[in-house]
Amino acid sequence: QVHLVESGGGLAQAGGSLRLTCVASGRTFSSTAMGWFRQAPGKEREFVAAIKWSGDVAYYADSVKGRFTISGDNAKNTVFLQMNSLKPEDTAVYYCAATRLSPLFAGDAYYSNAARYGYWGQGTQVTVSS
Question: Is pLDDT of 51 > 90?
Answer without folding.
Answer: yes
